[in-house]
Amino acid sequence: MVVPSLPSLADKAAARAALRAERKAFAASLAPDTRAALEAELTRRLEPLLFAARVVAAYQPMKDEISPLAALDRARALGRETALPAFAARDSRMTFRPGDATEPGPWGLLQPPLDHDPLVPDLVLVPLVGCDSRGNRIGMGQGHYDRALEALRGSARIVGIGWDFQLLDSTIAADPWDQPLDAFASPSGLLEFAR
Ligand SMILES: Nc1nc2c(c(=O)[nH]1)N(C=O)[C@@H](CNc1ccc(C(=O)N[C@@H](CCC(=O)O)C(=O)O)cc1)CN2
Ligand SMILES: Nc1ncnc2c1ncn2[C@@H]1O[C@H](COP(=O)(O)OP(=O)(O)OP(=O)(O)O)[C@@H](O)[C@H]1O
After folding, report:
1. What is the pLDDT of the chain when averaged over all its residues?
2. Which spans of this chain does the record mark as coiled coil (predicted)?
3. Cα–Cα distance between 86 and 89 in angstroms, integer?
4. If you measure from the C-alpha of residue 12 to the centroid of ligand 2, how many angstroms do you get, rounded to a whole number?
5. How far is the CA of 177 from the centre of ligand 2 (A)?
6. Ligand 1, atom 12: nearest CA belongs to which residue?
């Protein structure tokens, strides 16, 4: 569906900076129990997808991001395998590996040990700075997910997760390498994008 009346975010870098600031302010406004309740709601919204999956990849959250860790706990309780991003170096390919995030990674995030063999997920819970109602996504700007998702397209459900406001009214001008999301999940619901 074309929605011509929406303003377009032509400048991705400026949009990324503004949305990161908004994410920071929102996360800072949350009392810990409110935040945990929102993350439990997210898990509930994801339940059908977790149930349908075999291997669920998510991420080790940064401070202001919604945490997918409760959803990963739920996936494991359902008997699903889980995986987290791991990098040998900043410029190496992102892989998804099983196990707890116990090792320091090159992007300042903990990751599973690199001697755990990579898994091929069939559900990827993708971090984002923002996305639009067509599934176009703004991430941290390094292209890690774009490259990793290229190989998984067709064999995995690709679901962005975030706080409610991270689903934008504006449209994002997609770059040729951008990998669109199949759906967006937040504490308020799961939105599947038309393709
Ligand atoms: N939680 C989470 N994990 C993720 C991502 C993400 O967006 N969120 N990534 C998505 O691709 C990959 C990592 N990509 C990243 C890209 C840039 C920065 C970054 O700019 N971090 C700091 C600067 C830290 C530093 O330079 O050491 C920052 O927030 O300013 C972090 C992770 C894989 N894992
Ligand atoms: N498939 C690819 N092959 C080569 N380079 C790529 C590919 N995908 C993305 N890139 C490069 O990655 C850079 C960052 O892209 P972009 O700003 O879209 O990242 P992002 O989606 O916000 O970040 P991320 O996916 O890490 O969260 C671009 O300069 C682009 O050249």
Report:
1. 95
2. none
3. 9
4. 12
5. 7
6. 144
